[in-house]
Write a structure and sequence with these properties.
alpha/beta; Rossmann fold; eight-stranded mixed sheet; binds guanosine-5'-diphosphate; Signal_recog_particle_SRP54_M
């Protein structure tokens, strides 16, 4: 799903690699590429333009924290904008009525009947509801048969009236029957046509006014791209529906419908169909979908965590200390504490794209810093401030005090010394804050 779009977006972010901050000039190419990627994914032109304009405004307005690289910041901004384009937050269906009545709308072949079965199944299994299905597609005996088969598979009754060609009457009678028999959700499947036509619209509008549904869902095949968006608009103008169901997202869909439909009809996507099987149904979470489109949900959380934890003032202070070569073990301890605040080491490492899978079965010691901390805590205040005074005798004492051995103490002192030298060189030359950010 959306593979092409994901790859293209990922490539566009790479252009910002190595840039110190986001500027009007260096972001221009990235934005152009994002827009092209969206257009190639069959996103409506106006929406793609507005999207990149919004991203640009946010990117330039953002204070670039030293803990976050511009490429990563762009990923986060684009992710947030994608989620907001798709509605921002999760929108549930309305099931208050007694019984709650749900009316399906959409073209023939969009997946209405399949979705009706999937929804009944989900409501029964996950919400403990007692649904009833209604066969309102009176023109196609095969459609009625299909619904009956689905109903049997999931153990949900299907209301049909043989010979009755009036879907309005059938729907009304079905609701009465549901009331009498204690079913609390009535799902009305309706007839679709291959294209929007007046008779179909009149019919479904008549059903709507006769049964006054709690929820009207518009079902659409996501593979049809911009056609899906146009059809949605026509149905919405006529029915003022409550939500969209995007089917066939398991196919080779480019993503255009998922990304444009909300902005065009201003109605939320509520479900996505991801296969022909009855279980292949997901409720729609815009933020999770944005994660999936970018294929880098993990890095988004990592950036968020770094943003939460990074202390700009502390970074400035450290930079000064490094320049003056007064970075000591107390500063080192603070650095460790900051990294630890980001969460368990395994979690933090796992958020780096590609690392999650690689370390899944690995045993990463959450106490990796424990020895280092113990060694530093065993130093006197003077030793921490001024590591140069730690001679052989002191090393032995520190090793004993921390329950480690002298080799470990030596190793830490050597590493500390080398790190300090390297950082000093960098701080005299380039931007040390960026390097520190990279280390986190
Ligand atoms: P209707 O005419 O709107 O009632 O559409 P159907 O429910 O009969 O679906 C048309 C075809 O699309 C059927 O072959 C379904 O199996 C298939 N279909 C429906 N939803 C999905 C889905 O989410 N993924 C895939 N791959 N196929 C689907």
């Amino acid at each position: 799903m959306f593979e092409n779009l994901s790859d293209r977006l990922e490539r566009s972010f790479k252009m910002l690699k190595g840039e110190g901050k986001i500027t009007e000039i260096n972001v221009a190419e990235t934005l152009k590429d994002i827009r092209r990627a969206l257009l190639d994914a069959d996103v409506n032109f106006k929406i793609a333009k507005k999207f990149t304009d919004d991203v640009k405004e946010k990117a330039l307005g953002q204070e670039v924290l030293t803990a976050v690289k511009p490429g990563q910041l762009m990923v986060k901004i684009v992710k947030d904008e994608l989620a907001s384009l798709m509605g921002g937050t999760f929108a549930d269906i309305e099931l208050k009525g007694k019984p709650a009545v749900i009316l399906m709308s959409g073209l023939q072949g969009s997946g209405k009947t399949t979705f009706s079965g999937k929804l009944a199944n989900m409501l029964k299994k996950k919400k403990g509801r007692h649904p009833m299905l209604v066969a309102g597609d009176v023109y196609r005996p095969a459609a009625i048969e299909q619904l009956k088969v689905l109903g049997e598979q999931i153990g949900v009754p299907v209301y049909t009236e043989e010979g009755n060609m009036d879907p309005v009457k059938i729907a009304k009678a079905a609701i009465q029957e549901a009331k009498a028999k204690g079913y609390d959700v009535v799902i009305v499947d309706t007839a679709g046509r291959l294209a929007v036509d007046e008779q179909m619209m009149n019919e479904i509008a008549a059903i709507k006014s006769a049964i006054n549904p709690d929820e009207i869902l518009f079902v659409v095949d996501s593979m049809t791209g911009q056609d899906a968006v146009n059809t949605a608009k026509e149905f919405n103008d006529r029915l003022d529906f409550d939500g969209v169901v995007l089917t066939k997202l398991d196919g080779d869909t480019r993503g255009g419908a998922a990304l444009s439909i909300r902005a065009v009809v201003e109605k939320p996507i509520k479900f996505v169909g991801t296969g022909e099987k009855l279980e292949a149904l997901d409720v729609f979470h815009p933020d999770r979908m944005a994660d999936r489109i970018l294929g880098m949900g993990d890095i988004v959380s990592l950036v968020e965590k770094a943003q939460e934890q990074f202390d700009e003032e502390e970074a400035q202070r450290l930079q000064k200390k490094l320049a003056k070569n007064t970075f000591n073990f107390n500063d080192f301890l603070k650095q460790i504490a900051q990294i630890k605040k980001m969460g368990s080491l395994k979690d933090v490492v796992g958020m780096i794209p590609g690392m999650g899978k690689a370390i899944k079965n690995m045993d990463i010691d959450d106490d990796a810093f424990k020895h280092i901390e113990a060694i530093i805590y065993s130093m006197t205040a003077e030793e921490r401030e001024n590591p140069a005074i730690i001679n052989g005798g002191r090393r032995k004492r520190i090793a004993n005090g921390s329950g480690t051995d002298i080799q470990e103490v030596n190793r830490l002192l050597k590493q500390f010394d080398e790190t300090r030298k390297m950082m000093r060189m960098v701080s005299q030359g380039k931007n040390v804050q960026r390097m520190m950010a990279g280390m986190q």
